[in-house]
Design goal:
Blueprint (H helix, E strand, L loop, with lengths): L10 H16 L3 H14 L4 H13 L3 H14 L4 H14 L2 H14 L5 H17 L3 H11 L7 H11 L14 H15 L3 H14 L4 H11 L4 H14 L4 H13 L3 H14 L4 H13 L3 H14 L4 H13 L3 H18 L4
Helix pairs in contact: 1-2, 2-3, 3-4, 3-5, 4-5, 5-6, 6-7, 7-8, 7-9, 9-10, 10-11, 12-13, 13-14, 14-15, 14-16, 15-16, 16-17, 17-18, 18-19
């Protein structure tokens, strides 16, 4: 008969290591603290505080994969802690796992509570960077617009905003040296426009056009900027760009959007139809086609495209407002009420309803 021996860990062992880890952390001895916290969480894997400090210390040391692994354990134990999801998403960004980073950053933003205002800006910025890299430029610009009013921004922020504005699926670190000025000026112009400095934006756009007169992305950005203030000039600019770049469905969607907003649905319809057919993953294209269809008599098909737009961009207030109206006209009061409630919640969350 064989005896079974179990090596037990006494509570005193864990308490001693945890106390030494805290002392090393408070003394700013990061490497020693990391080693001790690693020992402590191995002894007690349910110790959420230990995983939290291990993750944050690893991030401070630039050990982002270790940060990710530790914080995955932390959020497993404390899944309502927004700061845990925040730091996890930021560490995943640094490891290049952008899909997981976006998912966890958005989850943190959904939880919201307990995240300082400056951290919210950091999260929105990284959300915008990832969305730009994925080609979701309109969504990225919405994220930028939520934080650009906070004051002066870094060169990286301005470059990132320029990338989104010019529809380039890159991160700021990937911009070739020869193109740094292009995205810097575009980002500066867009930032000034977002804070209502139209005179300053106009000056930046003039500089941009003077330096890059044949760049189609610059021409698109300028046309889109003109639309709210000088819609006829903006449409003329965008139609001229479309003549030489017929593959640009983002241009068609932008023209259609402006025409829909002005109530010129019949004129918008062919632009919207082509954009939606050629770019089924573009929420703006689906939205404007749905609006144009619903407004010109094809209510059911219009609803289908508005539903597609809302699925692609669930946070779009415009989509939910349009759906509420379309459902009401289609005799679907329950669906209409649901969309109105979503619209109210989104308006309140954005401050539009205050």
């Amino acid at each position: 008969m064989f005896a079974m021996f179990v090596l037990a860990v006494s509570p005193a062992d864990f308490s001693d290591i945890a106390a030494r880890a805290a002392a090393a952390r408070e003394a700013n001895n990061g490497s020693q603290a990391i080693a001790l916290y690693q020992q402590a969480v191995q002894l007690n894997p349910q110790w959420a505080e230990g995983w939290w400090y291990l993750g944050n210390l690893s991030a401070d040391a630039g050990r982002f994969a270790e940060c990710r692994d530790a914080l995955l354990q932390f959020v497993r134990l404390e899944d309502k802690q927004a700061q845990g999801w925040s730091t996890l998403g930021l560490c995943e960004f640094e490891t290049g796992d952008y899909a997981a980073s976006l998912e966890h950053i958005r989850h943190a933003l959904t939880l919201g509570s307990g995240i300082p205002a400056d951290m919210m800006d950091v999260l929105r910025f990284h959300e915008a960077l990832i969305l730009t890299r994925e080609g979701q430029f309109d969504l990225a610009l919405r994220s930028y617009s939520a934080i650009v009013r906070g004051g002066p921004r870094s060169e990286t922020f301005v470059a990132g905003l320029g990338l989104a504005a010019l529809h380039k699926p890159l991160l700021p670190n990937d911009i070739p040296p020869a193109e740094q000025d292009l995205y810097r000026i575009a980002g500066t112009a867009m930032g000034k426009s977002m804070v209502g400095d139209n005179d300053g934006a106009q000056a930046e756009f003039r500089d941009l056009l003077a330096r890059y007169p044949s760049n189609p992305d610059v021409q698109y950005l300028y046309g889109a900027w003109l639309l709210p203030q000088h819609p006829d000039d903006g449409i003329k600019q965008l139609e001229s760009l479309l003549d030489s770049n017929p593959q640009r469905d983002d241009v068609r969607a932008m023209i259609a959007y402006n025409l829909v907003q002005r109530g010129d649905l019949n004129r918008a319809l062919p632009f919207a139809k082509k954009a939606a057919e050629d770019a089924p993953g573009n929420p703006l294209a689906q939205y404007v086609y749905g609006r144009a269809l619903a407004g010109t008599g094809d209510l059911q098909t219009g609803i289908a495209h508005l539903e597609a737009a809302a699925k692609l961009d669930p946070s779009s207030l415009d989509c939910h407002v349009a759906l509420a109206s379309a459902y009401s006209r289609a005799g679907r009061p329950v669906d209409s009420r649901r969309e109105r409630m979503k619209s109210i919640a989104l308006a309140r969350a954005s401050g539009a309803g205050s």
